[in-house]
Structure formats: C-alpha cells, structure tokens
Please model this.
Amino acid sequence: MKTTSKYRWVVVGVLFAFMLLHQTDKLLIGPLTTDIMREFNLNRAQMGFVTTGALFVGAIFYPLWGYLYDRYARARLLALASFIWGSTTWLGAIAPTYPTFAAARASTGIDDSSYPGLYSLITDYFLPHMRGKIYGLLELSMPIGYLLGMVLGLLLSGVIGWRAIFYITGSLGIILAAAILLGVREPERGKGEPELADLEHITEVRFNWATARDLFKKRTLLILFVQGFFGVFPWNVITYWIFNYLETERGYSETQVFITMVAAVLVLAAGYPLGGALGDYFFKRTPRGRALVAMTGVLSGAVLLMITLNIPNESRLLFGVMLAVTAAFIPLASPNVVATVYDVTVPEVRSTALSIQYFIESSGAALAPGIAGLIADQTTLKSAFLLICVTTWILCGLFFALVAYFAPHDIHRLREQMRQRADAERTLTG
Model:
C-alpha cells in the first residue's frame, strides 16, 4: 500500500489524539489522589496500590497485545483498545466503594498495554532516521496529557467532582475508538525500512514463534529489557505522588501546586521531541547515538533531582526553577528506547519486542507507587523519591552504556536481513 506524505501526518495526528486523551485519563489519578483518599478514607499505602493494580493488569496483557498486533490488523486492535479505555473508565466513575474502585481502576490496565502496536504501525510510515522525532512527538502527549489531567483535577474536581471528570474522559475514549477505526489505514509491514520502501509490493510476513524466540538472542534487547525493569520506577513514583508531596511536605496551596507543575510539565514536554531529535541526530553519525543520549538523560536527572529535593521549603522560586530544569532531562531516554528496540528488530515481531520491553517495565514498576507510599508512611515522600528515583536512574545509566557498546552489531545484522528480503522481492517480481 502506498501512502502519501500528507496522509501519514494525518495518522500521526489521530494517534497523537489517542495518546493525549488516554494519558490524560490515565494520569488523572495523580491530581485526584487527595479527593479520592478523602472520599474512601484511605491511607497512602492503600491509595498507592490502586495504581499498582492497573500496572499489574497492564503487565499481564502486554504479551497478548504484542502477539495480536503482530498477527492481525493493528489499526483495528487499537480502536478496540480505545473502546476498552472508555468503558473501564466509566466503571471507575460509578464505583461505590474502595474495593470496587480499585478493581475498576485495575481493569484500565488492559488498554494501558496497547501502545506497542501503535508504535509498530507508525514505524511503517517513516524511515529509521526520522523515527526518534516521531516517537518523541507522540510521547509529547504524555506530559501534555498530564497537564490536562492536572487542569481537570485541580480546577474542576471541586466544581463537578472527580467522578464526573472520569465520565468525560471515558466518553472521549469511545469517540476516539470510532475515529481510529474509520480514519487509520493499515500500512504494509516493513514499508518503513529503507531497503523495502521503494518496492511496489512486500510479501506479507507475520509473527512466528521462531523469530520471536530470536529476540532473546540480541544482546541489545536483553540489556534494554533489564534496564526497563528499573527505568519507569521514577516516572510512576513522581507522577503519582508529586502533588501530594507539594501539598503535604512543602505546604503548597492548590494554586501554588498548579503554577509549579505547569512550568515543570511544559519543560518536561519539550524533552520528548528534543530527546527524539537528538537521538536521530547522533544516530546518523554513530549507531551508538541513541543510547548515549539516553544515558545522558538519566544520569543528569539523578543528579538534578538530588539537588532539587534538598532545596529548603522557603526557597520556592529556586525549587520551581530546579524542578523544571530536572524535568528537561527526565524524558530524553524514552523515545530512544523505542527507536533502539525497532533499530534491531524485524518488522513482524516489533509489537512483540516492545510488548516484552513494556511488560518488564510494568512488572518492575507495578509496585513503585505502593512501595513509595510505604516508605513515605515510615519517613517522608522526599526520602521515597530520593531512594527510588536516584538509585534506579544511576543503574539505568550503566545499562545504557552497555547498550551503546552492543547496539552497532545488532543494527548491522537487521540491515543485512532487510537487504536480503529486498533482493528476494526483486527476484520474485523481476
């Protein structure tokens, strides 16, 4: 299937809207935490395990989504995921008790694990040297969604209540399901590879178990998988508890929380496309480029977070500035992890490869909000942030250094495989 340059940006727009609104719904739980805790009379540990449940369910569904995306039409499955998002969010909005609310929020993890197919689909519209920027653009939806969730949570929860907010976001999920079903066409798998891009037809190659097992023979992927176990600990802890930290340990009012977080999230948002663009830039010069950008991001984040959290409570302006500076480095790794996974993986198992990556990330991060709550109940949220975030970012820096060492071999191997496929296609049609 040939697609116009203009149409592929329409696809990017539709998928960006899906991710933006989905992230808004997913991350609303952070700014609504205090209201929900008050209604159900919960302590921090109980509230932390609400998110833990969703992360566990998401982790379980990652392998299934990955297999389905590599076997069947990705656009239709993505529309199904959007419908599930809307439906499960509505269940959380009507839940009358803490157990039913926790169960409903856990069910939202089903659609939370649907992103690997989205990235696999968009990969077939763009060549490798552009993918980091596209992934960074799509991941821009996460901080903007966080910002929208913050606006809805802080400004509207006191007016219409937290349940009404979930009714709104759940309805948007169902609307987006229709938009994806009707507006996103399925590209040929592998069409985004430079060796295959100019071919009139590509023989359909889909998931098979032998190719999937070969994923575990790639050293680059194995290291990324291990890194992934630790890599999203900080994101889950910070997004879940930062509002409560500012309110309870730094004594911020709702207005002060809003101003501080808006500035930090706007800077954070810029870090995603910046990280993707830097990864593409250095990838053109060395196959180690993406990993080196990711390593710089996590190590800088660790140092800056330590400095920021140790600023006295009275120095609010300095704290706000340093929080924003820290936020600029946090997302640099994210688009480069996705791009690196696809830089070394054949098209027919890319959803599976990224599903494994995200499965391991979710498995490791599922306990993060709950563990942070337990640490905070015994000490402070500041101690929980420092212990969990700084430790894991330092570990991830070491893992990215190893990725930079092993990636060139696996990237070269993929390019050889794609050249062989292109030669075979030309032989069949010639």
Observations:
- The two ends are 19 Å apart (CA to CA).
- Residues 5-198+207-429 form a domain with the Growth Hormone; Chain: A; fold (CATH 1.20.1250.20).
- The mean pLDDT is 90.
